[in-house]
Amino acid sequence: MKPTLAFPALAAALLCALLFSAPRLHAQCSGCTITLSSNSSTNYTVSAGTVLCINSGVTYSGTITLNGGTVCNLGTITGTVNQSSGTFNNYGSVGTGLATGTLNLSGGTTNNNGNIVRTFTQSNGSLVNNATFTPTSFTYTGGQFINNPAATATTPSSMTQFLLDGSNEDITNSGTLTINGELKLNHTGASLTNSGTLNLGTSTQNLTKTSGTATNTGTISANIITFGAGTATNDRTINCTSMTVNGNGSFTNNRTLNVTGAGTNDLNIATGSTLTNAGSGGNFGLITVSDAVVNLGTLNINNGSRIVCTNFGNVNTVNGPSLNNGCGVISISATSTNMGVINGYADICDATPPSGTIKIDNNSGTVAGTVTFCVCCVLATPSISGVSSICLGASANLTANSSGGGGPGGYAWSPGGGATQTVTVTPVSTTTYSVTMTYANSCTRSASHLLTVNPVPTANAGPDLLIAVGASTNIGGSPTASGGSGAPYTYSWTPTTGLTTPTSANPSANPGVTTTYTVVVTDVQGCTATDNMLLVVPAYFAVPARKLDAGYYEVKDNRVFFSFQEEYKETVANLSYAIYTDQHALVSGLPALPEAYGDNRYALDVTSLLTPGYYVLEIANEKNEKWYLRIKK
After folding, report:
1. How far apart, in Å, do the first and last CA atoms of the chain sit?
2. What percent of the chain has pLDDT over 70?
3. Interstrand relation of 614-620 and 576-581 (parallel, antiparallel or unpaired)
4. How many CB atoms lie within 10 A of CB 351?
């Protein structure tokens, strides 16, 4: 009896267990000099040249002092990380919902790709959040706070103020950042850069900038906003319940500012401060204020911009556009007051103006002769709705839309010259359509729309084929689809009878009877093309004889299918054909040459035989030897 090989089998089992059961490190956790593979409370100091790795599934409850090396965490830290320099890469969790976990950042860089859910302090260094940052305790006294796209960061409600009061103290948000308290910039070197979504809570001052720089290209939602010394710029959307520009600061609005919501919704410009309602990149500044706009400083309203408010009061200076090629509008639904100076080509539009030349309810100031009253249509926002792309040969409906401005009285489309609100266009190439809308006082506004024309693909269902009853063949071209906007293509064959895969390019067909198959191919842009092929399935192939007998061949699909096995027939053109009536009268006109299907099989089109009845097909070879086949149509 041979001994069993127990040891090799055991070794293999142990090897598999090690390979597939042991915790694995993330690809980013490489070059580890210390690896924690099981729960640990040992304290570590990580200096330059040291890489401490915490495996997945491991809970660490000790203290790590990071002062120049790298810590890479895939597990759960319920202890403390004190980082003064170096790099901390977190792919796991710092803290859990039921346990502690503290990260103290005073230098270096923390890259969070996992979760920070307990205690976090930052006095310097950089926090780069790429995942989830929701600490239950957060203390900030300095450093760079960066929240990247797709990341979510939320400060705890216990943090009443996020204060940037030192040089190079910055918040950069391109993800979603929620601050449950006041965000305050209080240093010339502090900055807020938002290109994502910034939500502030409900403290007395939600966003306060006494100095520093604030730039928004995303969306900011807050309660009260105060922009003081330094500059602030809005290139997208700001929503707040009230706003004040003070401290000799400046605020430039290039897109949308909404001062609305619960409470008193005022926009105040303090003495020595400047608000400029401008525009950039083809966009116009739009400021909507539910209550009052009060200007004690300088209000610049550039060409194309507009302010919509309930009450308006000017105590100092309003500067309208310097050229009369457009309008800077202030639209007032209730009371207008001017105690200062209104210059330039501003358009003041009071919904209930007084009679007289100066249509301002309460005017004790100066109004330049270039100022107009409700003559601009800049309040109208034109646009064109419709699809952005079509397939060559298709049509699209384009509709001119307008919000505000009282509605247009006329439309002029280009190209095409349409004069209605909706036009139907069928361009043969990519085209930019524009519409000019005419409003009251003959002023006009325009909008444009790019309509891309995608080429259509080419469909090839393949050649007509003939198969015997019960046989199968692949149909489709080589290739079945080409051109257009390219792959991936989709296919739809109809009818599906006898097809194995009617959504493939070259399905196998066995219909049992003669069938016309149609394929619709669709390219990556959704453009389609159609082609068809005839798959002939004759019941049988007749064999002509040297002498007629009583039998006959019944015509199917206007074709006579026959098999000709004699010699002197190198090509189908070497044979001659004639058709006679059953009374031996030659039918006027000779039939066309038959189609050859290989294996000496042919199909002769007899569509020209209009009268039903019996006929005789005569076939002659090069030696004028003749064969006959009686047919019935």
Report:
1. 85
2. 87
3. antiparallel
4. 12
Q: How far is CA 336 from CA 292, 313, 406, in A?
A: 10, 6, 21
Rounded to 5 degrees, what angle do the CA atoms 384, 388, 392 make? 125
CB burial string 88-116: b at 16+ within 10 A, e below: bbbbbbbbeeeebbbbbbbbbbbbbbbbb
352 in the same domain as 385: no
d(CA 75, CA 59) in angstroms, rounded, equals: 6
Task: Provide the CATH number for the domain around residue 568.
Answer: 2.60.40
- Cβ burial of 13 (10 Å; 0-12, 13-18, 19+) is exposed
Q: What share of the chain is helix, strand, coil (3-state, %, to 5)?
A: 5, 50, 50
Peptide bond into 495 cis (omega under 30): yes
Percent of the chain with pLDDT over 90: 62
pLDDT at residue 578 greater than cutoff 90: no
Q: What's phi and psi for 518, nearest 5 deg? A: -120, 135
pLDDT in tens, 253-296: 999 999 987 778 899 999 999 999 986 655 678 899 999 999 99
At 6 the pLDDT is: 37
> Would the pTM count as exceeding 0.85?
no
Partner residues linked to 258 by β-bridges: 239, 288
In a domain, residue 169? The reply is no
How many domains are contained in the chain? 4
Please report which helix (H) or strand (E) contains residue 385, including its range.
strand 381-385
Q: Supply the pLDDT for residue 570.
A: 52
Helices (H), 32-147: none
Nearest alpha carbon to residue 216 among 188, 186, 265, 258: 258
Domain of 489, CATH number, reads: 2.60.40.10
Nearest by Cα to 629 from 541, 548, 539, 538: 548
> Which residues lie closer than 8 Å to 599 by C-beta, 6 or more apart?
563
